[in-house]
């Protein structure tokens, strides 16, 4: 038993929340050093799904000429149907509240079936143009299937795929390479689309809370909304081709920061709080530098260089204090 656990148990005893016998039982139990493998097993299940679906993709790529397109599609379809048959047969059906399944295998079979469905439809469109020139349908249909599976089987991993597919459908794609090359958005319209999609996700979480529909999905939706709105706003702030609208993105980013500040306390979600601070800080610095464009630094550039290290050190100190205060307030 660790020192912190010993102190916690002793504190409960001194406060008379537990008896001497209960304290001794807790001590004996913790000294056995028993720990759960639940998280580790779920991780390996998740990893096995990723390896399996990746293996399917590699198999298709390496043997495309020898196996044949029809055979590959047929094998994929059989595996997908088999997975969904097992999932529907053993699931508890749709429920508005959070659903706990008896076997964790079901959760990962749903994930595997959904990923394979996306591969199947994408392959069908790429090879045979099943949807003709309506390429968006090849993204929209897997997205709708993913949303259905996410709500029917209560699966957050599948919901992540669904939201990502929805973003891809409206033309939004975010990869590390895009961010490094500063081409996260290829046009101003995509910036507005990202902000609009983020707003829609927020509205949906509010509506879902009112009708008590899968309220535990709220944090996932809000995480996507935070990143979409914030990154799009920062992208708009750094777009010097459209200087007339940069103040609009300041208002959007400020409004987003305020909303996620409030909701992070409501949900006690430190992830939202941390990213909100980071995005707000980046936006604030961009605004400051844009304002400084109109200032002549020829006379005060030495003072500016001296102040800059103090500013960044102070920012780090304030960031740490904000996180500490947040943890104290949500624990109270």
From TrEMBL:
InterPro entries registered for this protein in UniProt: DUF2157
Is the keyword Acetylation assigned to this protein? no
Transmembrane segment boundaries: 43-61, 67-88, 108-126, 132-153, 158-177, 189-207, 219-238, 244-261, 273-294, 300-320
Show where the DUF2157 domain sits.
Answer: 12-158
- Keywords of this protein's UniProt record, alphabetized? Membrane, Transmembrane, Transmembrane helix
Official protein name in the record = DUF2157 domain-containing protein
Write down the species: Flavobacterium geliluteum
């Amino acid at each position: 038993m660790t020192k912190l656990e010993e102190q916690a148990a002793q504190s409960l005893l001194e406060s008379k929340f537990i008896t001497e016998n209960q304290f001794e039982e807790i001590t004996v139990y913790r000294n056995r050093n028993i720990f759960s493998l639940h998280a580790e097993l779920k991780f390996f299940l998740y990893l096995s799904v990723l390896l399996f679906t990746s293996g399917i993709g590699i198999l298709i790529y390496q043997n495309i000429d020898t196996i044949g397109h029809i055979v590959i599609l047929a094998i994929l379809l059989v595996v997908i149907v088999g997975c969904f048959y097992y999932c529907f047969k053993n699931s508890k059906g749709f429920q508005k509240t959070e659903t706990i399944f008896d076997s964790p295998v079901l959760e990962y079979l749903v994930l595997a079936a959904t990923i394979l469905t996306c591969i199947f439809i994408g392959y069908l469109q790429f090879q045979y143009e099943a949807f003709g020139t309506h390429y968006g349908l090849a993204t929209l249909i897997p997205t709708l299937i993913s949303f259905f599976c996410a709500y029917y089987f209560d699966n957050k991993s599948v919901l992540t795929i669904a939201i990502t597919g929805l973003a891809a459908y409206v033309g939004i794609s975010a990869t590390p390479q895009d961010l490094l090359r500063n081409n996260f958005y290829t046009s101003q319209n995509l910036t507005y689309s990202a902000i609009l999609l983020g707003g829609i996700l927020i509205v949906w979480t509010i509506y879902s809370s009112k009708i008590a529909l899968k309220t535990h999905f709220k944090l996932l939706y809000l995480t996507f909304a935070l990143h979409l709105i914030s990154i799009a706003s920062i992208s708009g702030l750094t777009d010097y081709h459209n200087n007339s609208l940069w103040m609009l993105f300041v208002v959007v980013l400020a409004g987003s920061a305020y909303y996620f500040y409030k909701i992070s306390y409501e949900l006690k979600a430190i992830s939202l709080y941390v990213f909100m601070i980071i995005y707000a800080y980046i936006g604030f610095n961009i605004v400051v530098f844009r304002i400084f464009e109109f200032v002549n630094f020829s006379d005060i550039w030495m003072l500016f260089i001296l102040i800059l290290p103090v500013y960044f050190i102070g920012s780090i100190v304030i960031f740490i204090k904000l996180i500490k205060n947040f943890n104290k307030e949500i624990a109270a």
